[in-house]
Specification:
single chain, about 350 residues, alpha/beta, TIM Barrel, 8-stranded parallel barrel, about 15% strand, binds flavin mononucleotide
């Protein structure tokens, strides 16, 4: 039997040459207007042999920005930058979707370079420090609670960002619903203390996330929209007490939209098999992630537990990861000191085999 890692696949409308996905990774190399730079074009071009690239998180609007030098996908200059990225990846035969990441309350104001509100479901600050300019950890700002009448415009920002992605020639979008950012802040009771129709029971906490997915699906077609979850991930102050109670109903509701895929960071929880939970509540494709190797990824695909597998850190120092896995070649190790330094070194200077 051929190794399923190297067989083609289809996620909604997106055709993949293999089932090795590059996981989204924030790398802080955007330009002064938060636009993708030539350096980013080169970085993604080098990694285009992945069956699918999921880009670093990109903010759908200025207030969505929380980190230093993260790209946006809301201005014409940013869309132009993404067009160069998309063209470069397509010229190498690859596929690429942009991850839409609104940080919500996870904002170090000095990272932004402009003045804007910090907004969240409720006025509860993120308890964790996050990287500030040049990667030095700093405290997050106190957010103000989003007013109910602001919600339609927030949903519309995501739909417009999805349209911008397609206009740039990207193959689709992935909604970041993990790691304690805005969508996760709505889903999680630690950050969502609202007493209106967007807070309380899970039916209410998922109202905004589902509205965003539905609006993006309507804007660009459901077959170009995926989303990412990480049940049980405590990152950025999330309550992890009962992830199935949140994510099973959320995924079931999302399933009705006929989306391209769900991408799951499997936290290896003792009391919840996230992949089995997904198969029980989700009829579409599953991309599995977290600490996988060529061997464990192949085993997940062979067992039918996932349809594709994603690798994050392995892609940092191995732009030709697919060829290396095919050849059984050793993997290079990343220079973790240069993850967020904004320069070429530790970014585009890792050689192929
Ligand atoms: C430098 C770095 C930046 C990351 N940025 C993001 C991000 O922007 N969005 C996201 O969903 N996950 C992000 N992640 C998480 C990765 O997508 C992935 O889930 C994680 O690295 C585990 O996969 P791995 O074991 O294959 O590395 C990031 C991880 C790293 C190492």
């Amino acid at each position: 039997m051929p190794n399923p890692l190297f067989t083609p696949d289809r996620l909604g409308e997106i055709e993949l040459a293999n089932r090795i996905v590059m996981a989204p990774m924030t790398r802080d190399r955007a330009g002064p207007g938060d636009e993708p730079t030539e350096l980013m074009v080169e970085y993604y071009r080098q990694r285009a042999s992945a069956g699918l690239i999921v880009t670093e998180g990109a903010q759908p609007s200025p207030v969505g920005k929380g980190y230093w030098r993260t790209p946006g996908i809301h201005s014409p200059e940013q869309v132009e930058g993404w067009r160069k990225v998309a063209d470069a990846v397509h010229a190498e035969g690859g596929r690429i979707v942009v991850q839409l990441m609104h940080c919500g309350r996870v904002v170090v104001p000095a990272n932004r370079g402009f003045e804007a509100d910090v907004i969240a479901p409720s006025a509860v600050a993120c308890p964790d420090d996050v990287p500030g300019p040049d990667g030095v950890p700093a405290p997050c700002a106190m957010p103000r609670a989003i007013r109910v009448e602001e919600i339609p415009a927030l949903v519309a920002d995501y739909a417009q960002a999805a349209r911008n992605a397609v206009a740039a020639g990207l193959d689709g979008v992935e909604l970041h619903c993990a790691s304690g950012y805005l969508i996760n802040q709505f889903l999680n009771p630690a950050s969502n203390r609202r007493d209106d129709q967007y807070g309380g029971a899970i039916e209410n906490r998922m109202r905004f996330p589902i509205a965003v997915l539905a609006a993006m699906a309507e804007a660009i077609g459901p077959g170009r929209v995926g989303f990412r979850i990480a049940p049980g991930n405590p990152y950025n102050g999330m309550d992890t007490s009962d992830p199935a109670a949140t994510f099973a109903p959320f995924v079931k509701a999302a399933d009705a939209l006929g989306l391209a895929y769900v991408h799951v960071i499997d936290m290896g929880l003792e009391d919840l098999d996230s992949l089995a939970m997904l198969r029980a509540n989700w009829s579409g494709a599953i991309i599995a992630n977290n600490m996988l190797t060529a061997e464990s990824g192949e085993a997940l695909l062979a067992a039918g537990r996932a349809d594709a597998v994603s690798f994050g850190r392995a892609f940092i120092a191995n732009p030709d990861l697919v060829a290396r896995m095919r050849a059984g070649a050793p993997l290079a190790r990343p220079d973790y000191a240069r993850l967020y330094t904004g320069e070429e070194r530790g970014y585009t200077d890792y050689p192929a085999l």
